[in-house]
Amino acid sequence: MRQAEQWTLHHELLAQVIEVVSILAAEMRIKKPIQIPRPSRPANPRARTGKRGTAHAVAVLKQAQANRRASA
To answer: Which portions of the sequence form the region Disordered (predicted)?
Structure first.
């Protein structure tokens, strides 16, 4: 990714979709999940705050994944 580009909500959502598909593919025995490199800070610093931000959505997905692993 070029440095001039900003990490927007669209980038983050696309990265999350790719990661979820990658996890599903890993469960189907595909060898290596795909991870998307992210910038060290988001384009909008407020995106990580509050219950409505992307960070909350990521936390919910991670908790669901942990619960799924614990029940397996």
So the answer is: 35-54
